[in-house]
Design goal:
Radius of gyration: 46 Å
Structural class: mainly alpha
Oligomer: single chain
Helix content: over 70%
Distance between the termini: 110 Å
Number of strands: 0
């Protein structure tokens, strides 16, 4: 605005000089008074504009010096953070370049899915760092007096942002590729179907053994106890495999852009896990009940379960697709008589009383030594003398003091 006004005033002054000097115009015709007033007004405005510009420059310099971000320490911290970010970008780029197509083996595919999940978590943790570096870096570049340093910082931030965007795009593309690989993996679907079928067979075995008659002969109860023990161990060995498949599916198929049918797969795996855990709890209850009837100690039942883990049984959790149905071990008790609990009330009551006596005997055997020890400690505590002065006179003739030798003076206590 000052430059435009200066150009206009110079043109007016030039025309005024032409009218007066070359055209012999009078002062009135040349508007000499108006031109002089206009020039004087412009000079005053120009002085005020320069003063205002100087004040703004001083305020800007003071604001730059008082800005908490414009310090040498923050410049050094920015350089360090940018160096760390660029190192991570280099590692991420090398990781993405060494990737191969998704494997067909389900176990190897699970490892790749887990690596991708960890990479996405690492990527998300660096997202806030990149955003912070852009904000602080742009601020420092705008307020520095070194134009070359500011331009270098802007170029560096722009290059890092391009690398970051490229890494994010490749990570999203690899995520989609893994989703398609898991959905198209025949081994994954075959394993899921085989697990469902295997679990349904075991569920039918448990239902065939129900209701569990606790008044049956001891040999029958022992046989059922061993069957439930082996079945429990087999179900628990299969549980990590189901959890691993569900974790892999949840990491890929629970996104908005997941392929069609992924929600059904996740729901099927969730139902499979819940049914498996329910059967495990059911077998634990039956094992403990049958073990109590047989008079087994719960600790011995735990050892038997641990021993059954090392048995030659191979449940589907280890080699699901390599064994045919005929080669897989079966825990069903074939030829076992089925007891439906058809016994009279006297037998049932006798069994209940017998189990109650056994339980009461175990409680007494466990509690008597503890109570005896507590009584012994209480008696020992009563022998410890009090150290407070308030109880000194009342406990002088206690049992503890009677056991310690004391001095007696026949003619009274000494003066000192």
């Amino acid at each position: 605005m000052s430059a435009k006004c200066q150009a206009s005033t110079e043109l007016i002054n030039h025309l005024h000089d032409l009218l007066v000097n070359e055209c012999s115009a009078t002062s009135e015709e040349a508007c000499s008074e108006k031109v002089a007033a206009l020039l004087a007004s412009f000079d005053q405005l120009l002085i005020r504009a320069k003063d205002k510009e100087q004040k703004l420059r001083e305020l800007s310099e003071a604001g730059r010096l008082l800005c908490p971000l414009c310090t040498k320490r923050n410049w050094a911290q920015l350089e360090n953070d940018l160096w760390r970010l660029e190192k991570w970008l280099k590692v991420a780029e090398s990781t993405q370049k060494t990737r191969r197509p998704p494997p067909a083996n389900i176990e190897q595919l699970e490892d790749v899915i887990q690596d991708q999940h960890e990479f996405l978590l690492d990527l998300d943790s660096h997202r806030s760092i990149v955003r912070s570096l852009n904000i602080v870096g742009t601020h420092l570049a705008d307020h520095t007096e070194d134009a070359a340093k500011a331009e270098e910082l802007r170029a560096r931030l722009e290059a890092d942002n391009k690398r970051w965007d490229q890494i994010c795009r490749e990570a999203a593309a690899w995520q989609v590729q893994l989703q398609r690989a898991l959905m198209d993996n025949q081994q994954f679907h075959a394993m899921l179907s085989e697990l469902c079928s295997w679990l349904e067979r075991n569920e039918r075995k448990i239902k065939a053994s129900e209701p569990v008659d606790l008044t049956a002969p001891e040999a029958t109860i022992e046989k059922k106890f061993q069957n439930f023990l082996e079945l429990k161990a087999e179900l628990e060995r299969c549980e990590p495999r189901v959890l691993s498949l569900q974790e892999a599916a949840n990491q890929l198929l629970r996104e908005e852009n997941a392929p069609e049918g992924s929600s059904l797969i996740c729901q099927r795996l969730t139902e499979l896990r819940l049914k498996l855990q329910s059967l495990i709890r059911l077998t634990v209850v039956y094992t403990l009940k049958l073990g109590a009837v047989l008079g087994r100690d719960p600790n011995e039942i735990g050892k038997a379960i641990a021993a059954s883990y090392s048995s030659p049984l191979q449940p589907p959790s280890y080699d699901l697709l390599d064994q045919p149905d005929g080669d897989r071990p079966s825990t069903s008790a074939q030829g076992e008589p089925t007891h439906n609990g058809a016994s009279d009330d006297s037998e049932i009551n006798t069994s209940v009383l017998r189990r109650g006596y056994r339980f009461l005997g175990r409680v007494v055997r466990a509690s008597v030594p503890i109570q005896a020890l507590m009584l012994l400690m209480l008696g020992a505590a009563s022998l410890v003398p009090y150290s407070e002065d308030d109880y000194a006179c009342s406990l002088v003739n206690s049992i503890a003091n009677s056991l310690t030798p004391t001095l007696r003076y026949n003619e009274g206590n000494p003066p000192i």
